[in-house]
Design a protein that fits this description.
Elements (H helix, E strand, L loop, with lengths): L10 H17 L5 E2 L1 H8 L3 H9 L5 E3 L2 E5 H13 L1
Helix pairs in contact: 2-3
């Protein structure tokens, strides 16, 4: 997707800014949060299994009334629990 801006900035300045933004985005880890039902679908298990795992320590964050799950944290937890 290409986006053009008509603000009259020098092209080399725009290119430098774009490169810096891309560098910063690459430095930041991508965080992906899923709801209980979305996580269950993602992992191929039932929402009840997610609830059971949550009771056993599956990491999640309460957002309002719902618990959201960071996919990376869930994967680390599953790796640890799978070795036990």
């Amino acid at each position: 997707m290409s986006v053009e801006f008509a603000v009259g900035l020098p092209e080399d300045l725009v290119e430098t800014l774009v490169l810096r933004v891309v560098e910063r985005l690459r430095e930041q880890p991508e965080r992906r949060f899923l709801s209980k039902s979305a996580l269950a679908t993602h992992l191929g298990v039932s929402p009840r299994t997610i609830k059971t795992w949550r009771e056993k320590g599956l990491p999640g964050r309460k957002v309002g009334r719902e618990v959201m799950f960071d996919v990376d944290e869930v994967n680390l937890w599953l790796d640890r629990e799978g070795q036990a």
